[in-house]
Design brief:
Strand content: 5-15%
Number of strands: 8
Helix content: 55-70%
CATH topology of the largest domain: Rossmann fold
Strand order of the largest sheet: 3-2-1-4-5-6-7-8
Order of helices and strands: EHEHEHEHEHEEHEHHHHHH
CATH superfamily of the largest domain: NAD(P)-binding Rossmann-like Domain
Number of domains: 2
Distance between the termini: 42 Å
CATH architecture of the largest domain: 3-Layer(aba) Sandwich
CATH class of the largest domain: Alpha Beta
Largest sheet: 8 strands, mixed
Oligomer: single chain
C-alpha cells in the first residue's frame, strides 16, 4: 500500500523541519505538498526539498490524506474556515501544530466530525531532536493515530496524552522548556566567567556539559536523582553546589515557573477561543 499524501498549510520553519524529517525517514518528496502565501518561500522549499508547492490551500486539502495545519494561531481561524468545505468533502486526518487552539475550536472552524490531532512540538524539532505531545479526538482511528505519530516522530520523540487539558502542561514543560535550559546555560556560562574563565572557554565547557548530561540521562536506565547521587561525592564540590541550589529553593522556582507557564497557556487558549466566537 502506498504511503498517504501529506499537505502542509504553511511553509514556515516547523513545517520545513517536518518535511525534511519525513523525507529523511523515507517519505517520497512527490507525496508531500506545501502551501504558503509567500511565492519566494514556496519556490525555495520546492527547490530544497523537491516537493510540490501550491498557492491554493483548498486544492492542497483536496489532494491530501493527511493535512497539517502549520500556520500561526492568530490566522488559523481564517485559514481553517477557508478549508472547511474541502475538509468536509475529502475527510483527511487533520494535524494542528498551532499552539493553544483547542480541538473544539478547530472543529467549529473546520466543521464537526473531523478526525483531528492536536500537536505540541518544540523548537529542537528543527534539528530532528524535538519532543512532541499529541492529543487525538474520538474521531481519529487507530490507523490515523499511527499516521499522526509517524509524521511527528520524523522530528523527534512523540508522547500521547489522553486528556486535552494536559496540553497546557505540555506547553509549560516541553513547549517552553528549551528556553529554560538556555537560561540555565546562560547563567552557568556567566558564573564561570565571574570565576575567571575566558568567555569562550566558559561557553564551550557549559555547552558540552549540558550535552553530556542530557546524553547520560537519555542513555542510562537510572533516574535523574540516581545519576545526580552518583556524581555527588560526600563532602565534595558538587555536594556543596547542590546544597546551595536546594537551600535557595531551585525546585520550588521551577514548580512556580511551570505553573505560571501552564496558566498563561490556558489564558491564551481562552483568548483564541473567544476571538473565534
Amino acid at each position: 500500500m502506498s504511503r498517504p499524501s501529506i499537505a502542509f498549510i504553511g511553509a514556515g520553519n516547523m513545517a520545513a523541519a517536518l518535511i525534511g524529517g519525513l523525507i529523511a525517514d523515507g517519505t517520497e518528496p512527490q507525496r508531500i505538498l506545501a502551501t504558503d502565501p509567500d511565492a519566494a518561500r514556496r519556490e525555495a522549499l520546492a527547490a530544497e526539498a523537491g516537493i510540490q508547492t501550491l498557492a491554493d490551500n483548498a486544492e492542497a486539502a483536496a489532494r491530501a490524506d493527511i493535512l497539517v495545519l502549520a500556520v500561526k494561531p492568530q490566522i488559523l481561524e481564517q485559514v481553517a474556515r477557508e478549508l472547511s468545505e474541502a475538509v468536509q468533502r475529502h475527510r483527511p486526518l487533520v494535524i494542528s501544530i498551532a499552539a493553544g487552539v483547542r480541538s473544539d475550536t478547530l472543529q467549529r472552524w473546520l466543521g464537526r466530525g473531523v478526525a483531528l490531532v492536536r500537536s505540541m512540538p518544540n523548537t529542537p524539532a528543527m534539528l530532528q531532536t524535538g519532543a512532541t505531545a499529541l492529543y487525538a479526538t474520538p474521531e481519529v482511528s487507530a490507523a490515523q493515530r499511527d499516521q499522526a505519530e509517524s509524521v511527528m516522530r520524523a522530528v523527534g520523540l512523540v508522547q500521547w496524552v489522553d486528556d486535552e487539558a494536559l496540553m497546557d502542561a505540555v506547553t509549560a514543560l516541553s513547549g517552553s522548556g528549551p528556553a529554560y535550559f538556555f537560561l540555565v546555560i546562560e547563567a552557568m556560562q556567566a558564573a564561570g566567567e565571574r570565576l575567571g574563565l575566558p568567555p569562550d572557554t566558559a561557553r564551550m565547557l557549559t555547552l558540552q556539559t549540558a550535552l553530556g548530561a542530557a546524553r547520560m540521562a537519555i542513555d542510562s536506565s537510572d533516574p535523574p536523582a540516581e545519576l545526580r547521587r552518583k556524581v555527588t561525592s560526600p563532602g565534595g564540590t558538587t555536594e556543596r553546589a547542590i546544597g546551595q541550589f536546594e537551600q535557595d529553593g531551585l525546585r520550588e522556582i521551577f514548580a512556580r515557573a511551570l505553573s505560571a507557564a501552564r496558566d498563561r497557556s490556558i489564558e491564551l487558549s481562552r483568548q483564541l477561543d473567544q476571538a473565534g466566537d
